[in-house]
Amino acid sequence: MTWAKELEELRAREALAEQMGGADKVARQHGRGKLDARERLAALVDPGSFREIGKIAGKGSYDDAGELTALLPAPFLFGKATINGRPVVATADDFTIRGGAADAGIGRKMEQAEKMAHELRLPIIRMIDGTGGGGSVKTLEMIGATYIPAVHMWGEVVKNLDTVPVVALALGPTAGLGAARIAASHYSIMVRGLSQIFAAGPAVVDALGAGWKDEGSANHEQAKEALGGSDIHTRNGVVDDEVASEAEAFARARHFLSFMPEYVGQAARRMESGDPADRREEALLSLVPRGDKQVYSMRRAMGLLFDKGTVFEIGAQWGRAAITALARLDGWPVMVLASDPSFLGGSWDAKTSEKVERFIKLADLFRLPVVHLVDNPGFMIGREAEVAGTIRYGVQAMNAIYKATVPLCSVVLRRAYGIAGSAMSNADTYQYRYCWPSGDWGSLPIAGGLEVAYKSEIGAAEDPAAELAAIQERLAKVTSPFRSAERFNVEDIIDPRDTRPLLCEFAELAWRRLAAD
User: Fold this and answer.
1) Which of 13, 130, 332, 441 has its CA 20 to 30 A from that of 461?
2) Which of 61, 358, 29 is nearest to 187 (CA)?
């Protein structure tokens, strides 16, 4: 006697599960220009590596004889897979089944996926489409009662944020719990025109009169974009990056994970880059212009300094006065924080400060050294900056830098003024710091304080303009970076062309220290 009959039933149930919401619903998903959940999993992970867990979970229908006639699968798939040869937990919401609403065991499956990631120390990737496990009005009629909201799996979500890399891909309209699951990640992506995120969708917002009306939108798709499209959420910091296609989203998720360890406490991996550590770039010598108000490309500097082709920028559309990226130095993974003089002159506004804080905390959590390329004229000033609470967000960013325990190397390319400028590193630790000859620093820019400090002298002079010019000439000599070096206020002024070899040396020493932690 064998168990062939039961295995036959198992295969039949698996075949039903593979139909997802049915041929019509799958065709509708494809008609919207979207892959279905199973196609997404296959495209994300290494070929043939996905092993599904709980495949036949769902809601069965039976005839009078108790025989299975149909199976509505749970609208959530998960399993173990590999990405770049490393184990992960891969998950995908199935929008073809009631828009991914919380039916047919989805809550239990989601909880188990999160627990698997936490307990086995595996990165988790969430591909979210729809309510992402949230409720629906129809659910109330199905269960015959309402309930006080509770997300019983959220404790696992919180644990994972402290233990493993969490990546979230918004691959459709996502509301409620789905939106929350995207925000609760270390790296998140939206697909332009395909993804929207909101606490509640346009119809609910309209019905509840929540201060927004779908007026002027030609159709429902436009209304969703207007309420929660990628133009909004990749510019306010809810989501890190915006891409043009699902394929690009999968590629960026894989790329992000290539820099990360598999869990907190494991060292990230060095990868041979083939780029010589002693490479010196002549272009760096003329990168920073002599005019203090002239801008230059910090992204160009990053391309010249780090291993070729390895700079992976995160959050380019928000907090734009700071560039945040992952990169490699002689194969060693590092996190890069860099001023962008082409936006607000590099001044930290509230959003930039929020971005810096989040980035530094991410570096410290996953034990990645930080390289800080500095050209910071200070916190943003003016009434708008005060209304936005810039100083509070700025201090929180500075606090994150002072609390961080990973090695940090700062390179001052030009300006470092005020409290924001001092946040280049923790001044109470060893200053692993280099300065270019173009360095310009102080408690406040000379131009901003000169006429106040010398008001009486200028006012008493026969020729105030000439007196002002003479004071400016004297101060230009005092503010030379070499005067700072005399007092050892600056550790080393270097030839800009030596920056890459010195950063590669820092990366090797930083990883040597991290290996001993």
Assistant:
1) 441
2) 358
Counting every residue written for the chain, the total comes to 517
Q: What is the 3-state secondary structure (H, E, C) of 446-489?
A: HHHHHHHHCHHHHHHCCCHHHHHHHHHHHHHHHCCHHHHHHCCC
For the domain spanning 4-259, the CATH number is 3.90.226.10
| CATH architecture of the domain with residue range 282-516 | Alpha-Beta Complex (3.90)
410-469 per-position pLDDT tens digit: 999 998 888 888 888 988 999 999 999 998 876 555 555 555 666 777 777 777 777 777
Tokens of 403: 């609390």
Instruction: Take residue 444 and report the two structure tokens written for it.
Output: 């406040």
Distances (CA, A) of 340 to 337, 344, 347, 359, 403: 10, 8, 8, 16, 24
Q: Which of 110, 103, 135 is nearest to 124 (CA)?
A: 110
> pLDDT by residue (tens digit) across 136-160?
556 556 666 665 666 778 999 999 9
The DSSP bridge partners found for residue 128 are 170
Residue 118's H or E segment, with its range, is helix 106-120
What are the extents of the domains in the chain?
Answer: 4-259, 282-516
Residue 349 DSSP label: -
DSSP 105: T
* pTM: predicted TM-score of the whole model, two decimal places: 0.90
The number of CA neighbours under 13 Å toward the Cβ of 461 is: 14
Using alpha carbons, select from 82, 125, 78, 129 the residue that is nearest to residue 106.
78
Are 99 and 171 in contact by the 8 Å Cβ rule? The answer is: no
Q: Distance between alpha carbon 175 and the CA centroid of its chain, in Å?
A: 20
Q: Does this chain's domain 4-259 share its CATH topology with 282-516? A: yes
- For 463, other C-beta atoms within 10 Å of its C-beta total 10
Among 104, 117, 287, 266, smallest CA distance to 185 is for 117
